[in-house]
Design brief:
Radius of gyration: 21 Å
Distance between the termini: 79 Å
CATH topology: Rossmann fold
GO biological process, one term: nuclear-transcribed mRNA catabolic process, nonsense-mediated decay
Helix content: 25-40%
Family: Belongs to the SMG9 family.
CATH architecture: 3-Layer(aba) Sandwich
Keywords: Nonsense-mediated mRNA decay
CATH class: Alpha Beta
Shape: globular
Number of helices: 9
Number of strands: 11
Largest sheet: 7 strands, mixed
Order of helices and strands: EEHHEEHHEHEHEEEHHHEE
CATH superfamily: P-loop containing nucleotide triphosphate hydrolases
Protein name: Nonsense-mediated mRNA decay factor SMG9
Strand order of the largest sheet: 1-3-4-2-5-6-7
Number of domains: 1
Strand content: 5-15%
């Protein structure tokens, strides 16, 4: 007798569909997109990881490696599209808005367009794009876009990774402080979906923040320099409510076997990643050549993945959210960020200030933004 089995799974039991590539959560016009909803489920065991950084620092590549891809794979197949050589040569940016990807382990990754991007500014100026009335100057608009995205991530992510490709730009920390100041307040329990209690009533939510130094050079792995880098970031972030300590440690990756755990007296959440595609530089062995460091990118990425905090211990709101609840919550936060009176007032003050003579700061990558 031939027996057939039904494949009609209940919604809760049906295996989640695997995403092949990222999709838009926020498009290049800063509009919310609904397409991610079909990949989400009514369960609470999830983690949300976002990323910010300046142009060309490797945000999309890092997010692809953390979520779905391996360093040896062809970058053209990465789930988050990285800059092509052509885009690099003309100084353009690949990512626009906010891209969404969820793994089968229920980790949501949010990749973002570069903050304070000179290519976005150049596009606005050269294409004579009409700005909203509240944004009188193109660079004010670019700055406000960057603040909106960052303030949004600070509200809807468990972990926010800040990627740099050199150490360090003081203006980036000023930007983080501004975004933290303008971050939306955690909505009260009455505005959240029904569920178990999350953060205490009246308390404000702040995410874990990880500083990732990408494309690090050999000298930056020197213990003395590493210690100085941690001390510098600790002082720059001393007055921040962002959780910049205690989330992860490079010393757990066993690439500094001679160092005691208390060597980094002021250890912050910082990881260093060397260039993964160079075994020799100018005929001399690079950082990846010594046997002990050949697998450094794999070790650090594995360490970063293993150190991601348990979302149960860091609820985003006053109720525990399911994946679908989170999507609706994030949509409401994004709408609130775009309509924020605090951001509008900050924009007005910035526009007023920019009417005065300013000293232009090119930063480490030549980005022309006023100081």
């Amino acid at each position: 007798m031939h027996v057939t089995y039904s494949c009609d799974w209940p919604d809760q039991a049906r295996p989640p569909e695997k995403m092949k590539h990222s999709i838009k959560l926020v498009d290049d016009q800063m509009n919310w997109c609904e397409s991610a909803m079909e990949y989400l489920r009514d369960q609470t065991d999830m983690l949300v990881v976002g990323v910010i950084g300046l142009q060309g620092t490797g945000k999309s590549t890092i997010m692809s490696l953390l979520s779905a891809n391996a360093p040896e794979e062809d970058q053209r197949g990465y789930v988050f599209r990285a800059q092509t050589q052509e885009i690099k040569e003309r100084g353009g940016n690949q990512s626009t808005g906010i891209d969404f990807y969820i793994t089968q382990e229920r980790v949501i990754f949010l990749d973002t367009q570069p903050i304070l991007s000179p290519s976005i500014l150049d596009h606005l100026i050269n294409n004579d794009r009409k700005l909203a009335p509240e944004y009188k100057l193109p660079h004010t608009y670019v700055e406000m876009q960057s603040l909106q995205i960052t303030a949004f991530l600070f509200t809807v992510c468990h972990v926010v990774i800040v990627i740099q490709d050199w150490f360090t730009d003081i203006n980036l920390y000023r930007f983080l402080q501004t975004a933290e100041m303008l971050k939306p307040s955690t909505p009260s329990a009455s505005h959240d979906s029904t569920g178990s209690s999350g953060t205490e009533e009246g308390s404000e939510y702040y995410p874990h923040i990880v500083f990732l130094q990408n494309k690090s050079i050999r000298d930056e792995f020197c213990p003395r320099n590493l210690k100085n880098m941690h001390m510098a970031v600790d002082k720059l972030m001393a007055h921040s409510h962002l959780k910049y300590k205690g989330t992860l440690s490079m010393l757990d990756c066993n690439i500094f076997p001679g160092l005691d755990r208390d060597y980094l007296e002021t250890e912050v959440n910082m990881f260093l990643l060397p260039r993964a595609n160079q075994s020799r530089v100018r005929g001399r062995p690079s950082l990846l050549s010594p046997p002990g460091l050949q697998r450094t990118p794999h070790l650090l990425l594995s360490g970063l993945q293993a150190s991601q905090p348990n979302p149960v211990h860091v609820p985003l709101s006053h109720t525990i959210l399911t994946e679908k609840n989170w999507f609706h919550y994030a949509a409401r936060i994004w709408d609130g960020v775009k309509k924020s009176s605090a951001l509008s007032e900050y924009s007005r003050l910035q526009a007023k200030q920019h009417c005065q003579p300013v000293v232009m700061n090119t930063g480490g990558n030549g980005c022309p933004f006023p100081t």
